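quick one, 501 residues, struct below
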Amino acid sequence: MYTDTLTVNCMEYSSRAIQDPPQPVSRLLYEQVADRLTSIIDAGTLRPGDRVPSLRRTSTAQGVSLSTSLQAYVLLESRGLIEARPQSGFYVRPSLSARLAEPPVRTCPPGPTSIDVGALARQVFQAATDPAIVPLGAACPSPDVLPTKKLGRLVTAITRSAGSEINTYVFPPGRVELRRELARRTVDWRYPLPATGVAVTCGATEALLLTLSTVAARGDMVAVESPAYFGMLLLLEHLGLRAIEIPADPASGLRLDALASALRRHRISACIASPTCQNPLGATMPDDAKRELLALLSRHDTPLIEDDVYGDAFHGGERPLPVKAWDRKGVVVLCSSFSKLAAPGYRVGWVAGGRYHEALMQRQLTTTLALPALPQLAMAAFLRSGAYDSHTRHTRALYARQVALAREAIARHFPPGTRATRPTGGLVLWVELPPSVDALRLGDEALRAQVSIAPGPLFSPRREYRHCIRLNCGYPWTPVIDGAYRTLGRLASEQAASKRR
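---
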């Protein structure tokens, strides 16, 4: 068995090696200067219309050469943050993104539908593996923002301490060390989770798959948000389930009136939703609406499959509670992972199955059988040390800034009539283009220009949203990323102009 000695060693190593807050990714000197000035602008110290310190003053203050200061200012110009005025200097540029309207709420057909998005999804995932393509399609964080080295040092320490213990089967529900840490993070909930109510999975995808296959059978109807995360639609397609689309508001998430109407009309086996930082809209439901959602589904005895993958990536201050926090009867199955903030390659997810927990574990035993020990032990130590929370604070601020830069680039380069969401969290942005722009055609043209996007039809069982796209903001803003937005804007503008002729 895993020894107490190893636990002590990991705790000592954690406090020694990874207690410090995460450091920014190594950047060129002019990028560091640009980042410092960006922070001043973001904080509101310098506002639109204010004059930026002169090149010479910045050079002296930052201890860099005039040429380095000039490179930093050129980068800030490319980001759309400052502008040069002849004979006057540099000024903070007025924000164009403030004028970007949000997409409207769509109405959805009332009946169920089968799903066929597999071919489109494979194209997006394939593009994400090509290093020559700018990755704005799949919602993947940049490797440069992940705590890979810190986790690697933990893995090394655990390997030395555990020996053969890490090379054994770990049967469901997974390592107790990790499950205790996950349960500890729920102590402020109305109904905290016990370690026995949490199980480790191979990412959130396995958690969702296990839950869907447990609560629904082939041909059943499942209520889904619209637009919906296309990975979840892939699971429904694989299991032969039919979708009932429920419109989601870009600001407040799932429309409860539409869900209530669907529950009255149809026999729905489950509802899948992301009440916190929904993918692809980035919307977060208010707490009152979350409690109302729980009450509504409880009255119909319909389980809620809560996809909380982006919950820790909330851009604001205090992390919103999931619906599961108020679940007394076990009607909510909470699914999450560490893939969007810390360790996508470790494939460590988890599920809190409520009344379905034992059935989920039995199904996992017959499908996956066992999970690797080493990633679980590493994530347990990472959580226990406090390094995960420190890293998360840094990363969600980075995501918020990258989303803001993306909205500014869209406002600057995309055709008139373009709309974009204002995400409350996460690393994706939903963009509605003018009706004359076809998202599938735009996706093909962008790929030929070495840029990947996720076309809107991927996010609907009926392949709606034909002039919408989702963009990944998980990579630090660079001239390459900025150039990709310019390219997308040019291609979309050319489409829009050709339709007008």
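Residues 1-25 have pLDDT under 50 and may be disordered.
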